[in-house]
Amino acid sequence: MMMHGLILWIFEAFVRLTYGDQVWEKVLTELDLPVQSVEPMFHYDVQIGLSILRQLSIEQGRDRNSLLEDFGTFLVTDPRVERVRRLLRFGGVEYTDFLHSLEDLKGRARLAVSDLTLPDIQVDEVGPHDFEVTCENNPKGAPYVLLGALRALADDYGSLAFLEVCCEQQDSAVISVSLLEREHAQGREFLWATDGAL
User: pLDDT tens, 49-96?
Assistant: First the structure.
């Protein structure tokens, strides 16, 4: 199975900016991989990404899922990948609107990058303020990246929410989202129109 280089390229940026260039280079050296930097428009065997994640967790003494959650947070909060945040925020004016729009995320991503395939996502509103977000576990660990992004976006919208991964299976996982306060704090500024590209 192949992974779009754009995903691995942004993960490389996450590692370099969070832990330093030396950590990224050491991980690749330990794995004896034939690349030193990722090309965003290439495609890579998904096992390369999983090997890098496994080695990074060893180097940092961190659980792989917590690293993936940090990566999801990075996608929303770091200004150097603002385009990812904008892609997500175009899902709605409020956090609940955004949650309902997640099922369309795969299609919106393909409008931006035609050969980029994201996991399938299904959203169910199981109560007035409670949601279940089912995310395909493909590539492996994808639900934890989504968990980190959803937590960061709750803050981004100024909402207070409790989120956790539950009902984890081999091919998918459910993220439960309890919206405690819709307008808990001032959200980050988001402009619908810009003076340039997304």
Answer: 999 999 999 999 999 999 999 999 999 999 888 888 888 887 788 999
Give the integer Cα–Cα distance in Å for 12 and 121: 25
Structure tokens at 156: 């981004």
Rounded Cα distance between 108 and 103, Å, is 10
Please say whether the dihedral angle defined by the alpha carbons of residues 37, 39, 40 and 43, taken in this order, is positive or negative: negative
Question: What's the rounded Cα separation, in Å, for the pair 92 and 75?
Answer: 18
For 143-154, the pLDDT digits (tens) are: 999 999 999 999
Q: Contact at 8 Å (CB) between 178 and 166?
A: no
Nearest Cα residue to 101 out of 76, 131, 127, 71: 131
Contact (CB, 8 A) for 171 and 155: no
